[in-house]
Write a structure and sequence with these properties.
With about 400 residues, the chain is of the alpha/beta class. The chain folds into two domains: about 40-230, 3-Layer(aba) Sandwich (Rossmann fold), CATH 3.40.50; about 250-400, Tubulin/FtsZ, C-terminal domain (60s Ribosomal Protein L30, Chain: A, 2-Layer Sandwich), CATH 3.30.1330.20. It has 15 helices and 14 strands. The strands form three sheets. Strands 3-2-1-4-5-6-7-10-8-9 form a ten-stranded mixed beta sheet, sandwiched between helices. The structure holds guanosine-5'-triphosphate (GTP) and magnesium ion (MG). Guanosine-5'-triphosphate binds near residues 53 and 212.
């Protein structure tokens, strides 16, 4: 056994590169087939905030997906970095924006619905990103979601609620849009911008927007790469579609650690992150994406998945991926998306309540037995220690 492990180590260190490449007669047809059946994942930023997040996503880089910016504001669209751009409501808005009116944003999307429909044909999963509170993102996103569903795409919306500092009018507009978008999306993740201020107190507003961009961009990247990039564990598109289709309200979180028990610490960090702001024990399903350096071990991967699965409903459908990033030596990062759970602030928003009324953070509670899904169909049980604790400190920006 020792020699097998040793030999495997040597192969990882270079022998694999020395295997002579062979071209089989079937390779060309196989390549064509892979191209044909390849998933089409589109990430669309709607309005100013959504477009800025698209630019951010392109800055951090995301493979094998199309990034698209759509806006009523031609100048902003010009400044956006994206694979494709669509100017909404050319007649209605003349490229000058919606004037902050979601009804104009909605009409602009309706005017452009044929163009959107044509563009979205053949899309498997559409991610819509927008900052709710303005006219374009708030008004156009629900229409775009409907168009995407008409062409058979699974629609996942990841949106932000305005900072309280932006005033109550923006929040009212955002909440109205959120209710519509929640109805027309399969899965909706809402990042309450006020939570960012919980993490990074006294941050100037424009910098807080950058963090908001980063959170949404990293979440989308983490979800799509689970299927689009080969990792230590490969997840099928069908599995991801399954989780996101009719996922309903969802919450997301990030955790990170470079400590001695970095695997468990990264999970604790994610579960204690103020962004999560929800009890996930009733979650229907979850996506876990782990990224770590070359020293990451199988044992650590198990620890992470076990700890998260132990925090969810035992019947929850969990998919996870793990990827090595050479630049992350000594660090473990965890992205967690749990569907079927509305954060209290979103629930309050949808019921017309005050968003800022909810300030409690989640407590971390791990159950005694965790069910580890090997594949969707196969599960096993593993004992876990019971532990309940309050998060000890506020997280710093770096820890996002
Ligand atoms: N993440 C992020 N959020 C932003 C940014 N700018 C504004 N926001 C948030 O997004 C909300 C909507 O603003 P915009 O996206 O500029 O509005 P819009 O959708 O373009 O709508 P109109 O400009 O009114 O047509 C604001 O209330 C803020 O909460 C940004 O650069 N990044
Ligand atoms: Mg705008």
């Amino acid at each position: 056994m020792k020699s097998i492990i040793k030999s495997a180590g040597r192969r990882i260190e270079g022998e694999l590169h020395e295997i002579p490449q062979k071209v089989s007669p079937e390779d060309s047809a196989l390549k064509d087939f892979v191209e044909r059946v390849k998933a089409r994942i589109v990430i669309m930023g709607v309005g100013g905030a959504g477009s800025n997040t698209i630019t951010r996503l392109n800055a951090i880089g995301v493979d094998a997906v199309e990034t698209v910016a759509v806006n009523t504001d031609a100048q902003h669209l010009l400044a956006t970095v994206a694979d494709r751009k669509i100017l909404l409501g050319k007649e209605l808005c003349g490229g000058n924006g919606s004037g902050g009116d979601p009804r104009i944003g909605e009409e602009a999307a309706k005017e452009s619905s044929e163009e959107l429909k044509e563009f979205l044909q053949g899309t498997d999963i559409l991610f819509i990103m927008a900052g709710l509170g303005g006219g374009t993102g708030t008004g156009a996103s629900p229409i775009i979601a409907e168009v995407a569903k008409q062409v058979g795409a699974v629609v996942v919306s990841i949106v932000t609620l305005p900072f309280s500092a932006e005033g109550s009018k923006k929040k009212e507009v955002a909440i109205e849009g959120l209710a519509k978008l929640a109805e027309s999306s399969d899965t909706i993740v809402v990042v309450n911008n006020d939570r960012i201020l919980d993490i990074a107190k006294e941050l100037p507003l424009h910098q807080a927007f950058f963090i908001s961009d980063e959170i949404v961009a990293r979440a989308v990247k983490g979800i799509v790469e689970i299927v689009m990039k080969p990792g230590l564990i490969n997840v099928d598109l069908a599995d991801l579609r399954n989780v996101l289709e009719s996922g309903g309200p969802a919450v997301l979180s990030f955790g990170e650690s470079d400590g001695e028990n970095r695997a468990i610490e990264a999970v604790e960090d994610a579960l204690g992150n103020p962004l999560l702001e929800a009890d996930i024990s009733g979650g229907k399903s979850a996506i876990i994406n782990i990224t770590s350096g070359p020293d990451f071990s199988l044992d650590e991967m198990e620890q992470i998945v076990e700890a998260i699965v132990g925090s969810l409903d035992p019947t929850a459908n969990v998919i996870w991926g793990a990827r090595i990033d050479e630049s992350l030596k000594g660090v473990v990062q965890v992205l967690l998306v749990v569907t079927g759970v509305a954060s209290p602030s979103v629930e309050a928003a949808l019921q017309g309540g005050a968003v800022e009324a909810v300030t409690e953070r989640p407590t971390i509670a791990r159950v005694e037995r965790a069910t580890i899904p090997r594949r969707s169909s196969e599960r096993r049980t593993v004992p876990l220690a019971r532990e309940v604790r309050e998060p000890e400190k506020d997280l710093g920006l770096d820890e996002l």
